[in-house]
Design brief:
InterPro entries: LytB/IspH, Nucleoside_phosphorylase_d, Nucleoside_phosphorylase_sf. This protein is of the alpha/beta class. It is 37% helix and 19% strand.
Length: 493
């Protein structure tokens, strides 16, 4: 309608291409022929809400657009919907993701209920017709809700709801501009290896097996791995995550996280008689063993790592006062030891190789007798993911790293990429991708930290196809075949 076009125009920059179709599927079908050669097409306006959870002024971003009453008619997918939704939420709008259905006529009463039963969130009379010929091109559909159930449509109050919805439309326009500017994407390059490593798979399986075998609740000290999606999935199954053993009821089954713990934690669990399953990654267990061996020789141990990380806290706890943390080159230049001829070093498993190299150069210069582990402490998965991403970043305009903020190995992937000169962003999932990062880019690199589920990569790649990325290729530098056995407490024969 003309009023919709005026509202959208107020939110668009001068000269932005905006066309008014008129109301109804017949007009929309006729005018759609004029958009056959358009590079990207977005439909926006107001719509009727189909479910009672919607409110006037809420925004529905279509994940697909359907045509009501047409059997066998394929819905038009809108893969970039999660990123458009993020752009709208950033503007303070209440946003819902789901199907939008197009009807030949205004919908009320039982017809509204029937369409809601199909899973659609909103109904309009133009979107499916306008997008029908847009196959293979970036498409988007954003509708602001006017009338909502259970309020009848044909009442004077509906006019007020329409006016309220029109007031929101100018806020929708800038998000669509961000989407349009990102539709330059042509290729996604996936770094491989990526996502779960053997230690993470072992830790997650440990909790899952404990839940299956003993039933909920199963208590886990700290996050089993550092990923918000993994934690939420396990919580839904009955896992309870706590910071300290004091939060665990007497006799409750307790799992220790993949990052390892200090001996004092094990002693405290034993004193309380807590049944414990240790899900510590075997590579972290190796570092603990090396710490005990070096300290047993009378050496001062310099642990290269980050303060506050659970892995470093656990290693430091092996010999308080005998293990010192070195976080940076500056720390390496300033640290003093009692006997320079008895010094060893260890490394947090999730650090970047080049980050550690600079610190080690200083330590070796200052302490020529410095000894280290027999094999590299940095986890094979960390090394492999960083190596693969370096090569992907060399051909990408921007890199997206799937992983949570508290994931050390995921943050290192971002840092490795940025040190190579390519912009990189750490995101929990596709909902966190900011379209402004992708404006004007053609090649997008994608990887995931060792604690991030593979499905997050799949969802992100699917959304990027909604920006025009019609080529997805895998760049593999190494094939991983490492597997760790489960803890003996839950191992099946």
């Amino acid at each position: 309608m003309r009023v919709e076009a005026r509202a959208l125009r107020r939110g668009l920059p001068p000269g932005a291409p905006l066309r008014r179709t008129g109301r109804g599927p017949a007009r929309a079908t006729r005018i759609a022929d004029g958009y056959r050669d358009t590079g990207a097409l977005a439909v926006a306006g107001i719509a009727g809400g189909l479910v009672p959870t919607l409110r006037t002024g809420d925004v529905v971003v279509a994940t697909e657009v359907r045509r009501a009453g047409v059997r066998g008619g394929a819905p038009v997918p809108c893969p970039a919907a999660p990123m458009i939704a993020e752009a709208l939420r950033r503007r303070g709008l209440t946003v819902h993701l789901g199907p939008v259905v197009t009807s030949r006529r205004l919908v009320d009463g039982r017809m509204r209920d029937r369409l809601a039963a199909t899973g659609a969130l909103a109904v309009d009379t133009e979107s499916a017709a306008l997008l029908a010929g847009a196959t293979g091109r970036p498409t988007a559909c954003v509708r602001v809700v006017a009338d909502v159930p259970p309020h009848p449509l044909y009442r004077p109050a509906t006019l007020g709801r329409v006016v309220a919805a029109l007031r929101v439309l100018p806020e929708v326009a800038p998000a669509l501009v961000e989407w349009a500017e990102a539709t330059t994407a042509r290729q996604v390059v996936l770094a491989s290896p990526r996502s779960f490593c053997a230690g993470v798979e072992r830790a997650i399986s440990t909790v899952e097996q404990a839940l299956d075998r003993h039933g909920p609740p199963v208590y886990v000290r700290k996050q089993i791995v550092h990923n918000a999606h993994v934690i939420a999935d396990l919580q839904r199954r009955g896992a309870v995550f706590v910071d300290e053993l004091t939060e665990i009821p007497d006799g409750a089954l307790t799992v220790l996280s993949a990052h390892g713990v200090a001996p004092a934690v094990r002693d405290a669990a034993a004193e309380r008689g807590l049944p414990v399953i240790d899900a510590t990654c075997p590579l972290v267990t190796k570092v603990h063993s090396e710490a005990r061996r070096f300290v047993g020789r009378g050496n001062t141990v310099l642990l290269i790592g980050h303060a506050g990380h659970e892995e470093t806290e656990g290693t430091l706890g092996e010999a308080p006062g005998r293990i010192a943390l070195v976080e940076s080159v500056r720390d390496a230049e300033r640290i003093e030891v009692a006997d320079p001829d008895r010094v060893s070093y260890l490394v947090q498993t999730t650090l970047a190789v080049d980050e550690v190299a600079g610190v080690l150069d200083v330590l070796r210069r200052r302490f020529p007798a410095l000894t280290g582990p027999s094999s590299d402490d940095i986890c094979y998965a960390t090394t492999n993911r960083q190596a693969a991403l370096r090569e992907v970043a060399a051909v990408a305009d921007v890199v997206l790293v799937l992983g949570s903020e508290n994931s050390s190995n995921s943050r290192r992937l971002v840092e490795v990429t940025e040190r190579g000169g390519t912009p990189a962003y750490l995101v929990d999932d596709v909902d966190s991708v900011d379209l402004r990062w992708l404006a004007g880019v053609r090649t997008i690199g994608v990887t995931a930290g060792a604690s991030a589920p593979p499905r997050l990569v799949d969802q992100t790649v699917a959304a990027l196809t909604g920006l025009g990325a019609d080529s997805v290729r895998e760049h593999t530098t190494r094939t991983e075949d490492v597997h760790f056995t489960l803890p003996k407490e839950i191992r099946t024969s």
